[in-house]
Amino acid sequence: MENSETQVWIDFAFSCNYIDKNIKQGLENKTIEIGRLLNHMIENPEKYQKKNNPPIFGRRANC
């Protein structure tokens, strides 16, 4: 899971009393949602590509 390092730091902050239980839960919920969004982007890249955008490579500059 991509969020494992973030989760470790959230746990660390909670263990050191830098954040309370409510903040910890809120951060965990956000990291889960971000993980879902990133996974969706990885699994469906075509949905995140610009349409009708010419390719960058193979194009000559107009100088």
Largest sheet: none
Poorly predicted regions are: none
Report the total helices. 2
Give the fraction of residues assigned to helices.
55-70%
Structural Rg? 20 Å
H/E order of the elements?
Answer: HH
β-strand percent reads: under 5%
- Provide mean pLDDT, rounded: 86
Number of strands: 0
Distance between the termini: 47 Å
Structural class: mainly alpha
The number of domains = 1
The 3D shape can be described as elongated
Topology:
Layout: H1 4-15, H2 21-43
Task: Describe what this molecule looks like in 3D.
Helices cover 56% and strands 0% of the residues. By secondary structure, it is mainly α. It is elongated and about 60 Å long. The N and C termini lie far apart (47 Å).
How would you summarize this macromolecular structure in one to three sentences?
The protein has 2 helices and no strands.
Search tags:
mainly alpha; 0% strand
